Fold this sequence. Notes:
By secondary structure, the protein is α+β, with helices and mostly antiparallel strands.
Amino acid sequence: MTGVxxxxxxxxxxxxxxELHPCDCGEVRFAPQVDVVALDxxxxxxxxxxxxxxxxxxxxxxxRLPAEPVATPAGAGFAYGGPEPSQLIDPGQWxxxxxxxxxxxxxxxxxxxxxxQRHARAALTQAVAALDEVLKFAPADAAEVPAxxxxxxxxxxxxxxxxxxxxxxxxxxxxxxxxxxxTGSPAEPPERAQ
Length: 194
């Protein structure tokens, strides 16, 4: 990959971006080395680099680091970013991520052994966080995520195929379902900055 990508809001968001962009050969597995490097303009970037395990092609992603450290609110739990929408991943990609994690979890986790329950809870936590990211793209006064928010081919195709899935009421209901499975009681989505 050439060029420097926008500032990710967290290392989890940067790693997800890397996962969502497979090698040209189609391989999704990639265990990059991670370094901090100086850019030509003097700013710093995080460099994810390594070779594709299938074809051996060199892969590289450069993410500009923020000028000031990004603070995570205490007790906020797992989150991919702050209150602002992602500059790297669009709402369709976030919804696909939520689906992928939720598909790893059976409808009833009570019969699972402790290790399986731990994995199920981790997957649900990431699904809830991804749904929170989708909701950040919907303006406070809007009933759905606007079409202009979809910037990737995957995101646009998902919206065309299933536009109703990006309505606020459906996203909130799905998030509540996952949060209830996770904690036993519904948790409210975090407030979005205006």
